[in-house]
Write a structure and sequence with these properties.
The strands form four sheets. Strands 1, 3, 4, 5, 6, 7 and 8 form a seven-stranded antiparallel β-sheet that branches. A six-stranded antiparallel β-sheet has the order 10-11-2-14-22-21. By secondary structure, it is an alpha+beta fold. The protein has a domain of 173 residues: Bactericidal permeability-increasing protein, domain 1 (Super Roll). Helix 1 packs antiparallel against helix 5, helix 4 packs across helix 5 and helix 4 runs parallel beside helix 11. Strand 18 and strand 19 form a beta hairpin. Its main location: secreted. It is found in: Secreted.
Amino acid sequence: MAGAFSLGFGLLLLFSFVGKVHSCLDPASAYKLTGAVCRLTYPAAVVLNEKTTEVIKAAFQHAKYPSIEGERSIPFAGKLEYRLHNLEIHNLSIGKSEFELRENEGIGIDIGNVSAVFKGTLKYSYESALFRMGQSIDFEIESMIDLVINSKLYCGKGKVAADTSDCYLTFHKLQLLLQDDREPGWLKKLFTNVITFTMKLVVKGQICKEINKVANILADFIQDTAEQFLSDGDIFVDIGVTSAPVITSNYVESYHKGLVTYNGSTSIINASRFNPDQLTEDRSLYFWIGDDLMDPLMTAAYNDGRFICNISGEELIGLFLTELSAPRPELVSKWLSSEEPMLKAWSASVPRLWTTDQGTSVKAVAAVELLSGKQDSPALYFETEVEVCVRAYYADKKLILKGQAVVKLILFMPDQLNLFLSFKMENSLTIFLQEAVEKIGIPKVISYLEPELTALMDRQGLHLFDLINPEVIPRDGYVLIQMDFGFPQHLLVEFLKKTLD
């Protein structure tokens, strides 16, 4: 079960490097406080870099270009006053995008051959000793730009954030054309040169400002989405970071709290088993999910009354058609043939979760009532201690759970033992129920969980990603998820449209 939650939860941590924290520790100190880890290797960064052009395009197109006003005295010629307004960008294209992971520094991004046409209206006046003239005309500015961003990750003001202020543009071309006049006279050439210099400063400032804004909006969006994936109703999971991300030449790694809050009570992680050596660099993406996150989440779900199952009608009758080696006791047959039989099952104890190399195990006491529509009291009530070891797989956009159950103990209500059961009957009923729980009950619960958890992950958009050979690997105290992936372009485009429009 933990592997199932972990798979969807892990993907949503992708690039979630911005998060509120009480304090930012060095990574080594933060390990013991960490409930979840995301490692993005160089190949994954290559996939994401392919989408960088969409972010850059959005930054150019969404940037608010202010009106440009100025006055310039021209020696021996006169005075020029100008105002450019209604600036819009057209015909935007980007030639290439390259990046570099710089160890202990940040991420360098080079965007080359950005071609764009800025259009707007120019109002100008020129005054000299000989004459005065003024005009309002449309203009175009043809540009060819290279963009370099040296982003750094820092800790301040209660959060870790990306600083993209080290951003600069190189203009290989910036030509102002007045009403498509490609061979202007000497006067137009004169003030065109003046305006072009001012235009460079404005474009640089607005583009770099917008890139920083879009980057932080995207990071906040992913962080919020990841929290919402595991948070529901009164259950909340804090995946804020415990440390600034670690950057090497081969990967970027972020460390997350994974603290579960339910009705004002918050879990504590102070002895996490995480160690960077538990992750490799062979796959594109790795997610480390500790039992310190998953066990409190299971407890919160129990306290919130999530583990209750009622089965009746044809579904119930069909369950007991399963062939078992133990003969069906008369008491059970009589109950099944009664009017409106119903089975009610729930967890009678707080489930305990832990992970080993064999899988993720959940242990709890399950309570079961066999009810009939015409009876006030149950035909039978019993409790059984169940331990299930589950392994999770994800294929064809669906979650698959494989579980092995151990049913350790069957306990009946004392009054039922006196009223209904002789010792011999109790023994045969115990054997039957133990086999029924193991071969009917546990598979039925798993059959409920698979589509429900798949639907939950689909609602968060997991099915829209191209997950390549995902593996959910259980280890002592944690689950490791590793995969390659393809990032669907339309998701990023839609996000940018909804966020920036």
